[in-house]
Amino acid sequence: MTEQTRPRRPTIAESVQKRLADDILSGELPPGSVVEETHLAERYGVSRTPVREAVRRLAESGLIETRPRQRAVVARPTMSSVLEMFEVMAELEGLCARLAARRITERGRVALQQACADAHAQAVKGDVNAYYEVNERFHELIYEAAHNRYLEQETQRLRDRLRPYRLHQGRSPGRLGRSDDEHGEVMAAILAGEADRAADLMRAHVVIQGDVLRDFILRPPPGLAETG
């Protein structure tokens, strides 16, 4: 694994964010629960500062609701609202893959191949957290290879909002291996310069993640509310 694709050590705030997101999505902290920073700091064995940062990030993702002069609470996002974000994400990432197939540099090709190999190694180990870190790098390299700064920023912004959901759905049985296979197909299309195929494969890859999440949500205990 190269330094460029090696998963970086998460900050305390990022670790707290992942644990808090897991607790919310698993139903351990059900919708409507008060998010008390002091209690969470004790629960996770950290100071209130990283908890405050984690709460802020999850509020941006829609998992937590914060209102002026009121206590933060676990949000009640609907399944449809999350899946709508995945639909938009699929189109943005598909466009990134399309442009990457046309514009990727030799350096980008090498980095993408290494990231794909590193992700495969973590998938074989079954290490969801390590896989997710390298997986992020794989996608980011495709954003960069598109050579469209505005598209890269907007795609990354929505990806950040969906981060808790994407990490959690990675724990669905068998999803790690399938995701790894899909990465290989996307990479092959990009390296072959097959722009349309790269876009189609990437869109399908992201949409499937939304479908996996929906299957997870429909299994009790739900962490999200269904719409009627």
UniProtKB/TrEMBL annotation:
Presence of keyword Disulfide bond: no
UniProt keyword terms in alphabetical order: DNA-binding, Transcription, Transcription regulation
GO MF annotations, alphabetized: DNA binding; DNA-binding transcription factor activity
Transcription is among the record's keywords: yes
Gene3D superfamilies according to UniProt: GntR ligand-binding domain-like, Winged helix-like DNA-binding domain superfamily/Winged helix DNA-binding domain
One Pfam family named in its UniProt record: FCD
Protein name: GntR family transcriptional regulator
Provenance organism: Tistrella mobilis (strain KA081020-065)
Taxonomic lineage from the root: Bacteria, Pseudomonadati, Pseudomonadota, Alphaproteobacteria, Geminicoccales
